[in-house]
Design goal:
The structure is a homodimer. Chain A is of the alpha+beta class. Helices cover 27% and strands 27% of the residues of chain A. Chain A folds into 3 domains: 51-236 and 403-454, Bira Bifunctional Protein, Domain 2 (BirA Bifunctional Protein, domain 2, 2-Layer Sandwich), CATH 3.30.930.10; 255-383, YbaK protein, CATH 3.90.960.10; 474-570, Rossmann fold. In chain A, helix 2 (44-63) packs antiparallel against helix 5 and helix 2 (44-63) packs across helix 11 (446-456).
């Protein structure tokens, strides 16, 4: 392909609204252009990369035995009412009525539609297991679209769904998908970590996120420094490295101290000259409407979802100021566990047994000191109800943890029967008994594969494509305008294409400097330079992207071999 | 692929809402399922066919030098206001506002977005010509979705757009696309006729529709019985085969006759004992607001778009009863051209010179007889302002025309500067002068390729796929349940796949009758039957779909060769 016959509008300027490298580079390399906030046009270079990523995903899904379907974006809202997700998803729905006054939404995901579809044709355990997937456009009215195509309102997802007669079958398919996901990302040159994850609005019991480490990621993952344990910070179990009392064991009596107008952990610790660890926070929440007090250390953060799971309730929300006043007799900021009645008290495991700590006094402008949890507090239940911190250790091997930012590129779930029960997808088992089908679901953000590859593989000058995603294998930078140069460029393009490589020939009427900068920017693995000097010596230059040392001057006849060597070496290109 | 591991829910029953064969067969063959009116899920068999059609389209577009892009479905309504199409397209828009109160529509087409996009990076004639295309999902809130995927609300379109510095360049690309379209449809086994077409809401001067003849088609095309002339009935020029006066030439004076309560052509001709051809209808219309009278013969139909073109106005609409009463002094149904003043009178060419005809008298319950157009009517302009009929002849060679129903599978347009002018897409020419870019656009309905192939190739039993679209090349119908049959089916699948064929192995636990019926229904070109009798003779049966005479019993070792022969012959399979 000649550059002059396609549309690759590279930019020198950094787009003002682009904060992360992949966004900047995709715009500058002429891969994408914004139409409106969170909605992007893909230009020819962008489409080529997207298609390569799509092809890898499709191959691995087919290899894993999944069957491709194609479901509509237009979905009836009534289906979401049936599944009970109309409210929880309303936040991201694009919703409207058609000319027949039917309430429609644009599909942000397809559990409902596929569950409904599979009712056609699946009625016996003998039809199972069944694994279906699609590669299709999703729509989400994101509160904060950002980072280019990483969080956008219209994006391409591979979403797969599996259907089973028993849990063992689900677990087998889950493992198969887990492995297929690793192959997808490895082939696309994206490093990922499979993390234990929260199931969120999707529901179900077990899920793993595939996280691509990158400073541009929105998520924080927690990894063991020794073993393979990894989890999303939102899902990581807390195992404290210290279990000892935080203050001297002298069991002095509880005492009130005046803390006028001082209620935050920072303010109280400063006033009372203790560390935040010597405080115990009392958070009043409503668990499915019933008030609950949750105790965590001053340096910890309560995790409402963990609290909900521990309590076995559907939702936990912060209590209103009125409820807090009524329960504690004090304004917000002075709640404490000592003498607190009419409310269940849950203590995080790290609070259990603490001695000599500071708590609220259930009285305005007052705190208690010398509180001993075991002696002074009626704890109803102890559990893990906080976010993990750097002082916690690996739940598997008790070694230190490290924290890292990452981009979620895939997410797999063991859904169970949540959707099949509500939407009536059942099969008869061997004995004729009718039972709900057990389901799993499996998502990959295809655009995010592309963005993550760039986040992990770029330098100051531009993108460094892994060969599997590169829009072309070879760039012919024809910097000499001599007729021999044009002829040679044409000949090399033909030869390389005949050898199975894809070639972009930069035939533009512009300076060598512009061509070299653009070549670095768009990041094609191998560049062939046809310049005046080389021509006079009967040579062209073959240069791997991201490897200045790998530059070779060779006669035109050796170009194909040199390209092969460079591409083989290029599989090892550095990660930024 | 084993049938038991995929989802092909065939049906014996004909779906109640399916009126045309392709709709019935796609549902019965388990290719599609309706989600809501005009919105379909594609199941595995449907996706495979859709992907094969898509691949052919993509190959031919790439071969024609077009570059693939991917544009969003979410579009700002403001762009449509800029192009001036917000009102004319409002009818089919799905329209809504996002959380940022931005007015959005789902793209029914992409002229606006691509014109806006190409402004990035194209500023000089040297960047042109440029041809871009995408294969992407379109959304139209159809008034009457019908015929399954032929007229649906969510569908896949290949839409291409070309950009030029001069008209000659547009014409070259138009011809290239014209040829590429013929190759696409030929490769997909769909017979098409390229027809002169109306440009409609798209605008521009010249367009061709690619029409697949089928009794299920919504469109009527007109073809010459001798030469290659073909046109959509809506666009066909009228050349009458008769030009003589329709009544005896005796020039009797005009006379009023009472026609109480009788105003339609049928009623008047019956009452006055003349044929509809001896009547001249006078239609009062408003052309950009100004009243105009159009005269056509009683057996003809006025063509408002032709009238608008002849008058050089943007829109022609039927006048209201009030306007008609005011202009003619008579109620609707009695307008006539004799003595009509204050209005431009346009006569269709077939009316010119008529003698002794009946017209309205501009008086209630009254008509005129013995009207001679030349003598009695002040005609301001004569032209082609009616729909073609079976009495017209080919405008090219004056031979008889024939009419046929057809499905529009493609449409190409020479748009000119309509979009570039309104959206500000300009380039500098050789002299530095800034000029609007000249555009073309090129659409193919991918789902309609599939439906049209079925419409043209099916029998009572089911689909007869052309090989290029077939979901699999070979169906192995394993009707014997013996272990040898299972082993042989597995072996044949492996061998045929190794030879490059795609194979569906019907391994279901059901009767031979069900398997044979389903095989005919899903229409895979070659069926291999492994039955008890054949096995005992060391033979399997190889049978081309739609060719009972082509059945062969062969030893397993000769299957691959026989499959090759059958597929080669199958290219000639009959068209229904």
């Amino acid at each position: 392909m000649k550059w002059s016959q396609t549309l690759i509008p590279t930019l020198k300027e950094v787009p003002v609204d682009a904060e992360v490298p992949s966004h900047r580079l995709m715009v500058r390399a002429g891969m994408i252009r914004k139409l409106i906030s969170g909605v992007y046009c893909y230009l020819p270079l962008g489409v080529r990369v997207l298609q390569r990523a799509t092809a890898v995903v499709r191959e691995e899904m087919n290899r894993a035995g999944a069957q491709e379907v194609l479901l509509p974006a237009l979905q009836p809202l009534s289906l979401w009412r049936e599944s009970g997700r109309d409210k929880v998803m309303a936040e991201v729905f694009y919703q409207f009525t058609d000319r027949r006054q039917k309430e429609l939404v644009l599909g942000p995901t397809h559990e409902e539609v596929i569950t409904d579809l599979v009712k056609t044709g699946v009625s016996s355990y003998r039809h199972l297991p069944l694994v279906l997937y699609q590669i299709q456009t999703k729509f989400r009215d994101e509160p904060r679209p950002r980072s280019g195509v990483i969080r956008s309102c219209e994006f391409i997802m591979k979403d797969g769904y599996s259907f089973h007669a028993n849990v063992e079958s689900l677990q087998r398919t889950y493992r198969t998908m887990h492995d297929a996901y690793h192959r997808v990302f490895e082939r696309c040159g994206v490093q990922v970590v499979a993390c234990e994850a929260d199931t969120g609005a999707m529901g179900g019991r077990l899920s793993h996120e595939f996280m691509a480490p990158s400073p541009s990621g929105e998520d924080t993952i927690v990894r063991c420094s020794v073993c393979r344990y990894a989890a999303n910070r939102d899902a990581a179990a807390c195992v404290s490295s210290v279990k000892a009392p935080v203050a001297p064991a002298a069991a002095e009596p509880v005492r009130e101290v005046a803390t006028p107008g001082v209620s935050t952990v920072e303010q109280v610790s400063r006033l009372l000259k203790v560390t935040p660890k010597q405080l115990v926070k009392t958070l009043i929440v409503e668990a499915d409407g019933a008030p609950v007090a949750a105790l965590v250390r001053g340096d910890h953060e309560v995790h409402l979802a963990k609290l909900a799971r521990l309590l076995g309730v559907a939702s936990v929300q912060l209590a209103s100021a009125e409820v807090i006043q009524r329960l504690t007799g004090a304004p917000v900021g002075f709640a404490g566990p000592v003498g607190l009645s009419g409310v269940k008290i849950i203590a995080d495991a790290s609070v259990e047994g603490l001695i000599g700590v500071v708590t609220g006094a259930n009285r305005a402008d007052t705190h208690l000191v010398n509180v001993s949890i075991a002696r002074d507090v009626r704890v109803d239940q102890v559990g893990d109800v906080r976010y993990v911190t750097g002082e916690d250790v690996c739940p598997s091997c008790r070694q230190p943890l490290r924290f890292e930012q990452a981009i979620e590129v895939g997410h797999i779930f063991q859904l169970g029967t949540r959707y099949s029960e509500r939407l009536g997808l059942t099969v008869a088992d061997e004995t004729g008994r009718v039972m709900p089908v057990i389901m799993g679901c499996y998502g990959i953000g295809v655009n995010r594969i592309v963005a993550s590859a760039i986040e992990q593989r770029h330098d100051e000058q531009g993108i460094i494509w892994p060969r599997a995603l590169s829009p072309y294998d070879v760039l012919v930078a024809q910097v000499s305008a001599k007729p021999e140069a044009v002829a040679l460029a044409g000949r090399l393009q033909q030869e390389l294409e005949a050898a199975g490589y894809t070639v972009l020939w930069d035939d533009r009427d512009c300076s060598a400097g512009v061509k070299f900068n653009d070549a670095d920017l768009i990041g094609i693995p191998v560049r062939i330079v046809i310049g005046d000097k080389g021509l006079s010596r009967g040579e062209v230059e073959v240069q791997p992207r991201g490897d200045r040392e790998g530059r070779r001057a060779v006669p035109p006849d050796q170009v194909a071999l040199e390209v092969k060597n460079a591409l083989d070496r290029g599989a090892m290109a550095p990660v930024a």
